[in-house]
């Protein structure tokens, strides 16, 4: 628990706008409850003892000053300079390293540096220095494209971690050819005079081909691919021994109308839905999740491998599953007309969508029909040809209940961000030939609402049982992030309180819906939030407005869900070993809480009786690991998607794109294609004949002579100037200059910062 608070404390103190406050005010700024204050205080004390934070005059909390020898992580820029992020955060942020004093450091290297100069810039104290030693290299292997140049064979590295060419010798040893994608191992690192030297250790294939790019991503992100022999043997044995007729004490629900709704290319169907009405006319939602814990036992080879992988990885046209396909796409996949073991969550609602009771069970089910989201959407819109009557009725009921639940959750503060995803259109060779916004039809929301309800139901149960488990947490944003958000929103012409609550954010998102600035505002709201993560800490999920939350509904592809299934299984085993309470054993309805779970008493079921439940410390380590693997999977998917789209655009130089402004800097404007979802850069010099300046206070770029202003969210039509696939760069320019020479001659506009504004500076 302290580790989460340590991270949040440091992040808040690193804020450009942070002004030192006392410890109680710091806790308030982070939204720390009285219940969590002891853990917060412990985290703070540990940080202070380690010298990471200091208490100065007036008992004000801050980061230590930047001075002396600094050890940190280097981040290079293509222009030759870079920054050192101290391993122990300091009050003045990152250390700027000018060109020629980087000592050959590469992105990710751990370096030692000294401060050589201090000064103020944009109202902030800035420090520059020089690297005196590279302490630890981040990596010694790089992936890149082999080039034949007059000075010899060179490798152009992929990505942004290393920008310089690498000289290689004896390329014939591995049979490498011009424009092959290769893995090169560094023999000597670059100096001011010489390029890095390396040796080719593997040829991945011809650069630009899909298989080569997949191999490149695997190497770059160290993705797990093949399963070892013990895992495959365990999976095959489980599949061979699975007998769906030997159900033991499982509830038989094979006669119920149950459907799955998934993307068209999905094969691992791990969730299914039933919906009925009880004798009182109340909705009874059934969420049925593949019982992976029945096949993957704690401590087995498959369990160890699933824990290491953390999650399945979904890349364009390629999947690396968390579990072997004989399990993920076979005995655990809820395929139509096949008996499958599941864990069922039953939630009873009144007509207004309020929860009356929850029940949990081990079951055996049989899917009535497998639908895609598009098929479900067509049925709901009246195109019912080929659909079973009972499925049509079920879908309509699902939509009705989903809208009721969505309305209730929205009233309770759930925040929904409208950030469309991109779907690639690929030919048989794996090349992208087009892209378009992904399907967002209402069946997606139906499944989302039902999965959130089931996740919340399980977390509520386990919290009442007081047993440690992996939660999905989303901390409340700190006050400085919300203050920053309010300032950014004002630049769009909208108002937010200085410390907005969920309702204010909901109102903002509703106000910008379908407007040109909608994407940009949704994006800045997202950036104002912390990322959700896995941890045993009980702090709830801010965006979902949920006090109790975990991931339960995807155990085929997420290890967190598998862990939760195991804890739930111990509860179910205990529940089966005691007599079921009769209806007369409950208090009268007038005195009974409206939301009820049938759980054993604390005397009959405790964390100790759960047997295989993990200690909170172990769960903390697992949580950090699977949070990392989740982010790794997202980064790998984003990287490959970017590469494939850039390859397509490299053949479309001069083509026009409809974009929206998503970022403003002192060197250019970042814009995102509405259709392709890819981001590109417009250099200031390409905006038109004017002197363009970035105004950090007003959050805009202003033409100093014309007065023309560029703001976030502004639509802009651009054309493709150039594409650099290895560097992942897309350079764009406006189809028409934003100002003309005639407009440039108009009276200049100067925006002067107040002393207060200069002191605050801009937010990062």
Beta strand count: 34
How many H/I helical runs?
17
- The percent range for helix content is 25-40%
On the 0 to 100 scale, the average pLDDT is 88
Structure description:
It is a single chain. This protein is α+β, with helices and mostly antiparallel strands. The chain is built from 17 helices and 34 strands. Strands 13, 15, 16, 19, 20 and 26 form a 6-stranded mixed sheet that branches. Helix 5 runs parallel beside helix 7 (325-331), helix 9 crosses helix 10 (442-465) and helix 11 packs antiparallel against helix 13. The model is unreliable at 581-612 and 746-764 (pLDDT under 50).
Short description:
By secondary structure, the chain is α+β, with helices and mostly antiparallel strands. Helix content is 29%, strand content 27%. The strands form ten sheets. Strands 13, 15, 16, 19, 20 and 26 form a six-stranded mixed β-sheet that branches.
Question: Which helices and strands appear, and what pairs or packs with what?
Answer:
Layout: H1 2-14, H2 23-29, H3 37-49, E1 54-55, E2 61-62, E3 69-76, E4 82-86, E5 95-97, E6 110-121, E7 124-136, E8 141-149, E9 152-157, E10 166-168, E11 180-188, E12 196-206, H4 210-221, H5 229-241, E13 251-252, E14 259-262, E15 271-277, E16 283-290, H6 301-309, E17 313-315, E18 318-320, H7 325-331, E19 339-349, E20 355-366, E21 369-372, H8 373-380, H9 389-411, E22 422-426, E23 432-437, H10 442-465, E24 471-473, H11 479-490, H12 502-511, H13 518-528, E25 533-535, H14 559-576, E26 596-597, H15 616-649, E27 656-664, E28 668-673, E29 679-683, E30 692-695, E31 700-703, E32 709-711, E33 715-724, E34 729-734, H16 741-744, H17 755-760
Parallel strand pairs: 10-12, 13-20, 14-21, 20-26, 29-34
Antiparallel strand pairs: 1-2, 3-4, 3-6, 4-5, 6-7, 8-9, 8-11, 9-10, 11-12, 15-16, 16-19, 17-18, 19-20, 22-23, 24-25, 27-28, 27-33, 28-29, 30-31, 31-32, 33-34
